[in-house]
Amino acid sequence: MGGIQGWHLVIIVILALLLFGAPKLPGLARSVGQSLRIFKSEVRQMKDDDKAPAAGDETVEGKIVDPDRRENNA
């Protein structure tokens, strides 16, 4: 009752052949592989972004300008 056994895989392969046909299976496998590669790279990029310091953590120095005084000088 646990897990997929060998005969389960045989049934899945037979169903895939019936549904998609033998000529289309290599293209289907290629597109699934491409999708997995893209997903892995996105996950890796998200992990790298988490390690980088956030932009809001930096201190920015400056002075406060009164908007009324700025309009009078212009």
Automatic annotation (TrEMBL):
Entry keyword Cytoplasm: no
Places the protein is found: Cell membrane
UniProt cross-references to Pfam families, sorted A to Z: TatA_B_E (PF02416)
Alphabetically ordered keywords of this record: Cell membrane, Membrane, Protein transport, Translocation, Transmembrane, Transmembrane helix, Transport
Protein topology in the membrane: Single-pass membrane protein
Keyword Isomerase in annotation: no
Primary localisation category: membrane
Basic and acidic residues bias (residue ranges): 60-74
Chain residue ranges for the region called Disordered: 46-74
InterPro entries attached to this UniProt entry: TatA/B/E (IPR003369), TatA/E (IPR006312)
Family according to the record: Belongs to the TatA/E family.
Protein task: Part of the twin-arginine translocation (Tat) system that transports large folded proteins containing a characteristic twin-arginine motif in their signal peptide across membranes. TatA could form the protein-conducting channel of the Tat system.
NCBIfam families the record matches: PRK00575.1 (NF001854), tatAE (TIGR01411)
Quaternary structure (record): The Tat system comprises two distinct complexes: a TatABC complex, containing multiple copies of TatA, TatB and TatC subunits, and a separate TatA complex, containing only TatA subunits. Substrates initially bind to the TatABC complex, which probably triggers association of the separate TatA complex to form the active translocon.
Name this protein carries in UniProt: Sec-independent protein translocase protein TatA
Organism: Paeniglutamicibacter psychrophenolicus
Chain's gene name: tatA
